[in-house]
C-alpha cells in the first residue's frame, strides 16, 4: 500500500492561489503538506499571498510562484522552486484552465490557440515535468470538466481543449507506474466560481443547476475532498477521469 499521509509531503498546486486551487492549497497545508502555490496574473498575487498565509497559519510551509504555464520553461521553474525550496515533490495538482463559450463559426484562430495553449499544452507539460520531478509514489491530478461527458454546443474549444487530458492521463499512468505514481483527471460539474458565470446567461445557470442533485451547482468544497482522496487513500485510482458533479453528466 502506498504512503497515505500528507504530513511533511510537498505539493505543487498550479493555479493554487484562489477558487478551487486556493481552497485546495489551504487544505493541503492543514493536512501537513508544504505547498508551492502557483499563480498566473498580477491580479492573483494578493490571493496567492493570502493562501500562503493560510498554509502557514495551519502550521505548515508555503511559497508563491508566478508563471505563465503555457511556457514550458515556466512550468519547469515552478517544479524547480518546489525541489529547491522543499527538497522534492510528492503531489502535483494542475487546476489551471480557461473557458470560452462561443459557436465554432465565430471562433478565431487566436482564440483556438489560446484555449489549447492553457487547457491542453500547459496540462501536458505540467504532467511531463511532474513525471520527471515527483518522488516515487507521487500523485498527479489534473482538472478537466464534466463537459467531457456531455453532448452540447458552444464549448468546442473548452471541452475540446480539455479532452486531450484524458489521454495524457492514461499514457502517464502507464509510463510512471513503475515508480508507483498515480495519475488522474478530476472533471467537476459547473462550479460556483467567477470562472463559470461570464460565459452563461441566468437561464442557462438555472438549467445547469437543475441537472444536479439538490438543484445546485458544484461547489469547490465538494471537489477538494475528491482531490485530497486521490492524493492519499485513493492512490489505487490511476489513469482515470472522475466526474464529481451531483449527477450532472455521466458516461
Ligand atoms: N468553474 C467551473 O465551472 C468549472 C467547472 C469544471 C471544471 N473547471 C476547471 O476547474 C479548474 C479551476 O477553475 P476555477 O473555477 O477554480 O477557476 P479559476 O480560479 O479561474 O482557475 C483557472 C486558473 O487558471 C489560471 N490560468 C489561466 N491562464 C493561465 C496561464 N497562461 N498560465 C498559468 N495559469 C493560468 C488562472 O490564473 P489567473 O486568473 O491569474 O489568470 C486561474 O488561477 C479549471 O481548470 C477549470 O477549467 C471549472
Automatic annotation (TrEMBL):
<protein>
    <submittedName>
        <fullName>Short chain dehydrogenase</fullName>
    </submittedName>
</protein>
<dbReference type="InterPro" id="IPR002347">
    <property type="entry name" value="SDR_fam"/>
</dbReference>
<keyword id="KW-0560">Oxidoreductase</keyword>
<dbReference type="GO" id="GO:0016614">
    <property type="term" value="F:oxidoreductase activity, acting on CH-OH group of donors"/>
</dbReference>
<comment type="similarity">
    <text>Belongs to the short-chain dehydrogenases/reductases (SDR) family.</text>
</comment>
<dbReference type="Pfam" id="PF13561">
    <property type="entry name" value="adh_short_C2"/>
</dbReference>
<dbReference type="InterPro" id="IPR036291">
    <property type="entry name" value="NAD(P)-bd_dom_sf"/>
</dbReference>
Amino acid at each position: 500500500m502506498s504512503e497515505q499521509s500528507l504530513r511533511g509531503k510537498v505539493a505543487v498546486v498550479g493555479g493554487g492561489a484562489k477558487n478551487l486551487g486556493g481552497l485546495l492549497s489551504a487544505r493541503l497545508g492543514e493536512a501537513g503538506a508544504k505547498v508551492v502555490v502557483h499563480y498566473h496574473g498580477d491580479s492573483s498575487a494578493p490571493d496567492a499571498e493570502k493562501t500562503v498565509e493560510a498554509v502557514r497559519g495551519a502550521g505548515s510551509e508555503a511559497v508563491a510562484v508566478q508563471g505563465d504555464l503555457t511556457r514550458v520553461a515556466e512550468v519547469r521553474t515552478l517544479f524547480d522552486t518546489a525541489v529547491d525550496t522543499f527538497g522534492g515533490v510528492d503531489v502535483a495538482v494542475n487546476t489551471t484552465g480557461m473557458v470560452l463559450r462561443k459557436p465554432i463559426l465565430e471562433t478565431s484562430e487566436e482564440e483556438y490557440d489560446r484555449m489549447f495553449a492553457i487547457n491542453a499544452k500547459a496540462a501536458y507539460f505540467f504532467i511531463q515535468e511532474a513525471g520527471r520531478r515527483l518522488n516515487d509514489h507521487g500523485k498527479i491530478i489534473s482538472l478537466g470538466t464534466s463537459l467531457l461527458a456531455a453532448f452540447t454546443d458552444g464549448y468546442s474549444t473548452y471541452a475540446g481543449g480539455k479532452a486531450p487530458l484524458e489521454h495524457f492521463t492514461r499514457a502517464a499512468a502507464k509510463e510512471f507506474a513503475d515508480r508507483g505514481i498515480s495519475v488522474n483527471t478530476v472533471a467537476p460539474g459547473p462550479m460556483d466560481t467567477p470562472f463559470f458565470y461570464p460565459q452563461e446567461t441566468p437561464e442557462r445557470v438555472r438549467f445547469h443547476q437543475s441537472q444536479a442533485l439538490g438543484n445546485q451547482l458544484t461547489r469547490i468544497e465538494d471537489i477538494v475532498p475528491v482531490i485530497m482522496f486521490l492524493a492519499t487513500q485513493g492512490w489505487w485510482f490511476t489513469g482515470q477521469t472522475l466526474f464529481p458533479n451531483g449527477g450532472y453528466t455521466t458516461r
